[in-house]
């Protein structure tokens, strides 16, 4: 059986979608939630943290970094990445839109007040991509099932 360890802080951030896929699939993984002190002690361990960043996913003796690469790998492994290239493109377009929205939200949270004016625009973008991508019959973005 494959042994998975997901390394991240004890927060949702860039790891939550990955955690949710493991839980949804009922697949065991080591949800290694590191404190800031623990992270600072381990950050320069180039084998587990090749980019000196988290999240990383250890898959037996291999290490994957970059949250979207990890998410896509886990989605493929656990059956959440569509049934064909077109479904994968739909999943990718939703994920990329979420990533754009996330970047804007970070600006709002950490930026000045001016950024808040963008909130309605951001939700319009989400509504539009959700409408374009959703399979109205099944409440999923793809015809198949739950996806990334
Ligand atoms: N593009 C990377 C960004 C990773 C990233 O920025 N990780 C942050 C946490 S969200 C981190 O490791 N911060 C701690 C540090 O740089 O010491 C990804 O998506 O995985």
Automatic annotation (TrEMBL):
GO terms for biological process: glutathione metabolic process. GO terms for molecular function: glutathione transferase activity. Pfam families: GST_N. It comes from the Eukaryota. Residues 2-82 form the GST N-terminal domain. This is GST N-terminal domain-containing protein.
